[in-house]
Amino acid sequence: MRVTNSIITANSKLRLQTGLQGIDRLRDDISTGVTIRKISDNATSGGEIVRIGSSMRALTQFKRNTDSGIARAQAEEGVLNQLTNTVTRASEIALTQIGTTATAQSRLVVKAEVDQLLNLASSLGNTRFGDEYLFGGNRANEAPLFDPAPATGSFSRLMLAGNPVDPSGNITLEVGDNKFVTPTHNATQVFLDTDALAALRDLSTALGDNDTAAIQAATARLNTATSNVQTLIGAQGARVNEMEDAKVNLATMEMNLKMFRSDLRDTEIDQAMVELVGKQTLYQAAMSATSRILGLSLANYL
């Protein structure tokens, strides 16, 4: 087979172009800091980078949910502490009106303060968190409790088919793959199930009726209500700890994904510089050799 000058020239040009492309690519890697700028650069690593990007977007949403959950739980803790103080104050008032020194007149005087405490407790049930009611449950856009509190009947102002219903349901947040948390209780759990509002109203009624036995009974209910609220405070503390742990885990996962992505995509500058110098040296040598080969003519063989 005869090798002509045109074949030698074409092959030489192809090798030079390939070498020049390799140099240009290394220069781009060094200037941009990344070795993979499109999937076709490395299909396997490119696919991994796409999957990492999707995972990191999910982690970002999980982190937002965790922050929101912690803020909600801490807001509820603040309300529970206020409710504890309110019920405790009512219990202290009740104790002063059980003894023989209490009169109908003194009980009417302190009843006014108890009524204020009852209305305060009821208003706490309508605490807002952003644009929603913190204790609204699955009807977070509606105030769950009457404010001021009614003297009789249901404390809930929610209606269903014309009938009063207690708040129900809870907001859940996803803080990991298939991991959900419930950051807050609803108004039924905090204000009705603990017996806080009913105990306050019973004390108000007993004071107005000048009924010592009823005052004693209301005092016992208030003490039980205080214990129930304290139980919720403990539960909230556990929830906050759970979400704080989830937040730490998410941060660790995010850091690991960033490191993995960096290993796949980012340029190792020192290694790239050495490789660039080597390719430039080879390219210059190839240019010199090619120029000598292409410069040969028939006269060189005579």
Automatic annotation (TrEMBL):
GO CC field: bacterial-type flagellum; extracellular region
Superkingdom: Bacteria
Matching Gene3D superfamilies: f41 fragment of flagellin, N-terminal domain
Major localization class: secreted
Keyword Secreted: yes
Record localization: Secreted; Bacterial flagellum
Function, as annotated: Flagellin is the subunit protein which polymerizes to form the filaments of bacterial flagella.
The name this protein goes by in its record: Flagellin
Organism: Gemmatimonas aurantiaca (strain DSM 14586 / JCM 11422 / NBRC 100505 / T-27)
Taxonomic lineage from the root: Bacteria, Pseudomonadati, Gemmatimonadota, Gemmatimonadia, Gemmatimonadales
Gene assigned in the entry: flgL
